[in-house]
Design goal:
The protein is mainly alpha-helical and about 325 residues long. The chain has helices at about 1-10, 15-35, 50-80, 85-115, 120-125, 145-155, 165-180, 190-200, 215-230, 235-245, 245-265, 270-300, 305-325.
């Protein structure tokens, strides 16, 4: 009984609420994509230009923060599992839904996009592998790319699970937490994020969602995931982040402004390109810190619907985009 009470008391409720809010935001983001002037998978005949800057702003921070939250969740879900048990759990939770969704949900979406080419969904099914990878061909995983990337990253850390339980890792983690808990200390992660992208985006400039040619963003999301796993599961750091939330909110506002004004500040196209890219990275990181800090203050509480919503949010993510298409 005491262990159950202790577990309940130590549960980080704000992480659950943050995850729930992020997945719901994905629904509204994809809803907005339908009414953008820019071409998406499916588009309404009526579009709204005012959505463009809003959608661009949302696109920069939602998924990085979701990977950060996934890193936190993975750390707590790991518990006392062995490496084998952890891999089995990741395959059960990520790979199986991915495969099922690939053969059931994705064909519905691709069929709707190309409904003029097939008489029915059943007529489309024999052609789901025609033409090679999407968008030229029909082979795609659409919004399930998140499961692909998360599975890849989760399996990539599997060989290090034993190390994460060693005294050396605990000492290293405590030292990192001590550094990053200082005022503005979490910004020490920014040079790693920026450096990785300055190098990799030269070779992989576009976010293809295809994994095999998307290594800049794979590494980008991995750093967010690793930060969540290593740093944001330390109580000292989380409490410090909550106290410094206004600082990171100011950062978020500053970099938000820079994103939309960088082209008017500089005239050299190359300078604009790099200034914009660096600003978006700093913005995504600052926004993630702000959201986590404020969530820790205002959302770290139990509610009768939290458990239900926390369990429902995963199938909601899987089903929301096919539902929007239909």
């Amino acid at each position: 009984m005491n262990s159950q009470i202790k577990s309940k008391r130590e549960r980080k409720y704000f992480i659950d609420w943050l995850r729930i809010a992020l997945i719901i935001s994905v629904f509204f983001y994809h809803l907005g994509m339908i009414f953008r002037t820019e071409q998406w998978h499916v588009n309404s005949s009526e579009t709204f230009e005012f959505l463009e800057p809003i959608m661009r702003w949302l696109a920069l921070w939602r998924m990085p923060l979701l990977f950060l939250v996934s890193g936190i969740g993975t750390y707590y879900a790991l518990g006392f599992r062995t490496t084998k048990q952890y891999v089995k759990e990741r395959i059960t939770r990520l790979y199986i839904p991915l495969v099922v969704g690939f053969f059931t949900l994705v064909p519905v979406m691709v069929y709707v996009e190309r409904i003029d080419s097939y008489s029915s969904l059943w007529d489309y099914y024999p052609h789901m592998f025609d033409g090679g990878p999407y968008p030229v061909g029909n082979i795609s995983w659409h919004h399930l790319w998140f499961l692909v990337y998360l599975l890849f990253i989760s399996l990539a850390v599997a060989p290090f699970i034993k190390y994460t339980r060693s005294n050396h890792f605990k000492q290293l983690r405590n030292k990192l937490a001590a550094i990053t808990s200082k005022r503005g200390g979490l910004n020490w992660v920014l040079p790693i994020l920026i450096g990785s992208q300055l190098i990799l985006r030269q070779y992989f400039p576009n976010h293809s969602h295809a994994l095999i040619d998307d290594w800049a963003y794979v590494v980008y999301y991995f750093i967010f995931f690793a930060a969540g796993f290593i740093l944001f599961t330390n109580d000292k750091l989380i409490n410090a982040l909550a106290r410094q939330r206004r600082l990171y909110l100011k950062q978020t506002i500053i970099f938000s402004i820079l994103i939309y004004t960088v082209s008017s500040i500089f005239s050299n196209p190359m300078v604009i390109k790099y200034a914009y890219g660096i600003s978006t990275i700093c913005f995504a990181w600052s926004c993630g810190l702000t959201a986590t800090g404020y969530s820790r203050i205002y959302l770290n509480k139990e509610h009768k619907y939290r458990k239900i919503l926390n369990e429902a949010i995963y199938p909601f993510y899987l089903l929301h985009q096919p539902a929007l298409y239909l």
